[in-house]
């Protein structure tokens, strides 16, 4: 049984206005959640708010009017859960800025793959260091392409959370017919797997590009 009270997860905040953040915001919206997408660059916020398209990072994908877009971190204060999609090396700083604004108990789901260069900390460790004790951390990871998720093509991801009840609630909140999170309690393994996968993908690209063969 979870030691952390499971919040109602009706309002989802997504921090990061790049391709992956925009795609996850659309996935949350399709799952029936009220969704807020925060972006750092004012021009990106304006384009998404007025033109209803993220032309810089995800061109050609229309953004429904129901998707709220903001450049103010304070707007996260009414969110029941936050998907943190900032790049791995900036995750700790962004978390520190938004931490005082979060609802008590609102989970933060880290959606960036990587290991912090300066400290060698995993993303869960870097983010937790900037959060109050009442805000649990979960991990969303998987071999995904933002453009396909944004367009509603079938996608499976891992959602790792140490608290079983909270993990189940997050899976239910984000899951839909085309976006399927699978719950795991292996928070560390999910992060290591995601980081290593990126390195292997780059290596495979080099091998293929240089036509070095299957060996």
Descriptive account of the structure:
There is one protein chain. With 215 residues, the chain is of the alpha/beta class. It has one domain (11-209): Rossmann fold, CATH 3.40.50.720. It is globular and about 50 Å long. The termini are far apart. It has helices at 19-30, 42-51, 91-98, 123-128, 146-150, 164-174, 187-209, and strands spanning 11-15, 34-38, 53-54, 58-62, 68-70, 81-84, 108-110, 137-141, 155-160, 179-184. It is built from seven helices and ten strands. The strands form two sheets. An eight-stranded mixed sheet has the order 5-2-1-6-7-8-9-10, with helices on both faces. Strands 3-4 form a two-stranded antiparallel ribbon.
List keywords for this structure.
215 residues; alpha/beta; two-stranded antiparallel ribbon; 10 strands; disordered N terminus
Beta fraction of the residues?
A: 15-25%
Strand arrangement across the biggest beta sheet: 5-2-1-6-7-8-9-10
CATH architecture: 3-Layer(aba) Sandwich
DSSP summary: helix tally: 7
Topology:
Elements: E1 11-15, H1 19-30, E2 34-38, H2 42-51, E3 53-54, E4 58-62, E5 68-70, E6 81-84, H3 91-98, E7 108-110, H4 123-128, E8 137-141, H5 146-150, E9 155-160, H6 164-174, E10 179-184, H7 187-209
Task: Please outline what is shown here.
This protein is an alpha/beta fold and 215 residues long. Helix content is 35%, strand content 20%.
């Amino acid at each position: 049984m979870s030691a952390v009270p499971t919040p109602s997860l009706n309002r989802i905040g997504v921090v990061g206005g790049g391709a992956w953040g925009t795609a996850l915001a659309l996935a949350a919206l399709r799952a029936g959640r009220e969704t807020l997408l925060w972006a750092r660059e004012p021009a990106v916020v304006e384009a998404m708010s007025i033109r209803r398209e993220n032309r810089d990072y995800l061109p050609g994908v229309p953004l429904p009017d129901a998707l709220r877009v903001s450049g103010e971190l304070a707007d996260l204060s009414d969110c029941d859960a936050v998907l943190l999609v900032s790049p791995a090396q900036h995750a700790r700083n962004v978390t520190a800025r938004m931490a005082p604004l979060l609802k008590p108990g609102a989970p933060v789901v880290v959606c960036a793959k990587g290991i912090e260069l300066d400290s060698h900390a995993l993303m869960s460790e870097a983010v937790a260091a900037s959060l109050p004790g009442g805000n649990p951390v979960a991990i969303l990871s998987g071999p995904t392409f933002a453009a396909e998720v944004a367009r509603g093509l079938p996608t499976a991801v891992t959602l790792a959370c140490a608290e079983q009840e909270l993990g189940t609630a997050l899976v239910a909140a984000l899951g839909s017919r085309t976006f399927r999170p699978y719950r795991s309690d292996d928070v560390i393994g999910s992060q290591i797997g995601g980081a290593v996968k990126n390195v292997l993908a780059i290596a495979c690209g080099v091998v293929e590009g240089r036509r070095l063969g299957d060996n």
